[in-house]
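Morning F.,

Quick status update on the modeling queue. The single chain you submitted on Monday has been processed. Sequence for confirmation:
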Amino acid sequence: MGKSIQLGKIFGIPFRLDYSWFLIFIFITVLLSLSVFPSGYDWSTGYYWMVGIITSLLFFASVLAHELAHSLVGRREGIPAKSITLFFFGGIAHIGKEASRPTTELRMAAAGPLCSIALAGIFYGISLLSSGNEYVAALTGWLAFINGILAIFNMIPGFPLDGGRVLRSIIWLVTGNYMRATRIATMSGYGVSYLLILSGIIILILLGWLDGLWFIFLGFFLHSAARMTYRQSTLRDSLKGFTAQDVMTRDFPRVPRHLTIRELVNGTLLTTSSQCFLVTDGDRVVGSLTMQQVKEVPREHWDLTTTGQAMTPVENLKKVQPSDEALSILERMDEENLELVAVVKEGRLIGMILRDDLIRFSQRLRELKM
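Structure tokens below.
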């Protein structure tokens, strides 16, 4: 996914549209208006398009409800939802952390398909009651069918689809081993992705149907998603047993608060690989300044803006204790979109943790298989 547009919040959860969503919205609307509805109903062209647009919008509202079900069940289980994004291949709920128990993941994973099944039943019931109104009957009939397909497809045991997460939760529950369950579920995800790609090639070559391209794209997407999700799981697992004191950095370059951004760029910044600077007032640390904060200062203001003006004051830094678990810190940083946290002991700043450094630390651990 690329850039997205935030449309608002639902139950306090930000709802976004990735730019790729517009492509699939147009595709489905055209498919409904020029093929699906004309093949079964004799309407005017305007009605085909009107019903097609409404149906397409309600379909994506159904996808949003599916993801919202995951998010609300997760919230009830103590797992915060950061946002929901609709994109070309459907929707995704961004959560702040992974489930800590298999039963939690099972309930979260099953919530989406159960929501789609419920929607399929509701739309089917409306279609039966609207037999005298062709427009409503056609619209709800297709939505009942597509929500049923959505539920069935998501329950395919291919990680990270809902069915793959259900599979992982069951294996995790039986074996008590999270990473073993993740590896098996990921292998299942790879298998499903290969099957989708092969099916798409067969459909494309033997039958000449362009629908085969959809299966191929979907297969490649699922394979990529499975690989990325497994990588994230292994990185997080590698942090277990480590604390803030183990992963923090003590020695960041120090710069005086009266130094201008231009002086910082032309001096210290260009001669260090550090992504963070401690801003001082004499011998006292008064704040931190990250590379991202430097980039946010317009170039024309570099001579007028000081490090003290661009920094985050010490009192505003998010703080953790030296004994806090590294994994919980990473999850907190993901949940609150934090770039860094300060490690404080007895009211004294003893180190800093940058999110990128924490991820690199876990990557090194994974490479060394520690």
